[in-house]
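Possible race condition, two jobs.
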Amino acid sequence: MLVACAHGTRNPTGRRLIAELALAARDLRPGLRTTAAFVDVQPPTVVDVVRGLADAATPAVVVPLLLSGGYHVHVDIAGAVAAHPRAVAARPLGPDPRLVAVLTDRLAGAGADPRDPRTAIVLAAAGSSDPRSVRDVEDTAGLLQRSWAGPVTTGYGSAAQPPVADAVTAARRAGAERVVVAAYLLAPGHFHDKLRGAGADSVTAPLLPDERIAAVLLDRFDAALTTVPA
């Protein structure tokens, strides 16, 4: 069983896109059994889902529908699978070059030119106090920088530093003529709503919908499946 575990959101479009991501994985892998779980905001919780699968003696791979490894991955999801002898957790979706390719497409959709050294990009993530999460976001920024002439920096919605607005201000002070916030978020919701007030010239759409993300999800599932105890 693939347990697609997202953060959770009250935004109806965000809820629909996350649900459609799991459906897209099933379209790519006919016969795959999937169920949803969440770490915050909406039910069912990952703890309850994994407990139910354990009671039914059903092996499970929990794939975090998260873009970096932070508290939710290393505490919430890890704790849920630890209670089930035949459950394992996959690694989060990011970093991954395919996510960077989606980011690049979203930037193009916002009118940003990767060849323009005067256009700065602020990669905006939700944020986490876990340094592993910050490192994952910085690694993604490094991958994006390889194909971008202007500077690529990071900003966060909460917990980590710098805040997105401060990163935008810093980019302007460093000489950027245009600053674009690249929303490193799967779907619309609270954090994406806040990006409009960060002072950038434009803000990209979230990563979903995109079939490449479903392919990343399946790769994470396949890699973890080999570690499920028999």
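Job #2 (started ~2 s after job #1):
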Amino acid sequence: MPRELIDLLWRDHPAAPRGGARGPRAAVTTGAVVDAAGTVADAEGLAAVTVRRLGDVLGVSAMSVYTHVNSRDDLLALMADAAFARMPRPGYGSAGWRTRVRRVADTNLALLTEHPWLLEIDDDRTAFGPGTIAKYDHELHALDPLPLDDVARDAALTFVLDFVRAAARAQRPDPRADELPGLWGRWAGRLAQYLGDDHQLAQRVGGAAGEAMNAPSSPAHAWTYGLNKVLDSLTPPPTR
């Protein structure tokens, strides 16, 4: 029977409980199962991560996989924590707080771009994991120069990371992205004919944005604009 999730998350810690010494040694480790799951998710998406598939990849039975994880949900939490443990930790040095928070945002966007399946995992139990806690601690320090109490610091970091996740979702590849510039060029005039005098504000703003971006939207532009606004919202009020 596998250990509880918290013990699986901390399986490499000296204080983690160990299995009994009797019986044959397992053909694979829990870490190998988690690594294989991450590799499959990177290549084929999260839906491809099944116990049967992992058994095939590792050359063991599905029942052998279940000796390492209690459920697929537990496996997903382990995968997320492992990804957080391995992500780069940008240094802060003497940089100002805006630069520090930008580094946090950029690093998280890069992580979610490299491993988009992380966007599909919403499991608060990852907060108990060593990788997640190390990530949290490091990113909290980005806010050191700001006059925030502990509760506000947590909320500020959550605000930044929620924006990053939303932006990462918006930047996921659109299978028709390559067609949009051509369609915009061909259809803009016809769309104007269909609309006539209706929805003037939408026409004016959409036309200006579309001309500037040569497409109906630009995730890159939205990222730059949105992150600046997030940082502006964290700017301390001037002292009197």
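The chain has eleven helices and no strands.
Logs attached separately.
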